[in-house]
UniProtKB/TrEMBL annotation:
The lineage of its organism: Bacteria, Katanobacteria. One of its GO terms (biological process) is protein insertion into membrane. Residues 28-247 form the Membrane insertase YidC/Oxa/ALB C-terminal domain. Pfam families: 60KD_IMP. Its main location: membrane. Keywords: Cell membrane, Chaperone, Membrane, Protein transport, Transmembrane, Transmembrane helix, Transport. It comes from candidate division WWE3 bacterium CG08_land_8_20_14_0_20_40_13. This is Membrane insertase YidC/Oxa/ALB C-terminal domain-containing protein.
Length: 250
């Protein structure tokens, strides 16, 4: 199974990364920018429908909150009414899962790619040649990988924790874009009017997740190679633009 994963994902990503590395003046940081942008463009057809679906869900937040207030005591009836509302507006709540799963799988593959870089960064880069498809991508026996970008060694964790904090902050901004203030206030107001305390707990959990995600990014980012954290920051940054455009259209 691992060999299939390597064959279908890890090796192609490694070759793409080396391609951008060679193209962009042997600069590992610029190579990550190029790879991230390419992956974002390739996965855009999957991401845009998901973002549109999320925008629709925000549009009906008031109606959904009203349903919760009316049918909240009867969970079965509320679930039925909720699905009827989703169906009426052409919303499939599960449609947003595929892009997130894909991003997670790519992240795992990139982690393995960066580990490969780490193994060969301080020795000969030619150790990766067996995984490279074309001769022009391969390294000479004496060639070493340049992992320096700004103040970072991208093959190692950020010693100053700056990149993990920036990545976490970008993720928080993205979360705020996905949950505009007027929607949050409306949902919060209706939840407080609901008699059942479970609704307050569910709402509070949703609010906490907006902070827990970035916090986990900072925590894990402090331990992972900074190149992986840099990719996660860029991936979030490149996600803000289409999300912002869709939000402004509403």
């Amino acid at each position: 199974m691992i060999n299939i994963f390597q064959l279908l994902l890890t090796d192609p990503l490694l070759n793409l990364l080396i391609f951008f590395y060679k193209l962009l003046f042997d600069n590992f940081g610029l190579a990550i920018v190029g790879l991230t942008l390419l992956l974002k463009i390739v996965t855009l057809p999957l991401t845009i429908p998901s973002l549109k679906m999320m925008a629709k869900q925000k549009d009906i937040a008031g109606e959904l909150a009203a349903l919760k207030n009316t049918y909240g005591k009867d969970k079965t009836l509320f679930a039925k009414k909720q699905m009827e509302l989703y169906k009426a507006h052409g919303i499939n709540p599960a449609s947003g899962c595929l892009p997130q799963i894909l991003q997670f799988v790519i992240l795992i593959a990139l982690y393995q790619v960066f580990l490969a870089f780490l193994r060969h960064a301080e020795s000969s880069a030619s150790g990766m040649n067996s995984n490279l498809y074309f001769d022009f991508l391969k390294f000479s026996p004496e060639e070493k990988i340049n992992t320096t970008f700004l103040y970072l060694n991208l093959a190692k964790p950020d010693p100053y924790y700056i990149m993990p904090v920036i990545a976490g902050a970008a993720q928080f901004v993205m979360s705020k874009l996905m949950m505009p203030k007027q929607v949050a206030k409306l949902e919060g107001a209706v939840v407080k009017e609901t008699e059942e305390k479970k609704d307050d707990i569910m709402y509070n959990m949703q609010k906490q997740m907006m902070y827990m995600g970035p916090a986990m990014t900072v925590f894990l980012g402090a331990k992972f190679p900074s190149g992986l954290v840099f990719y996660w920051f860029l991936q979030t940054l490149f996600s803000v633009a289409p999300q912002w455009i869709l939000t402004k259209k509403k």
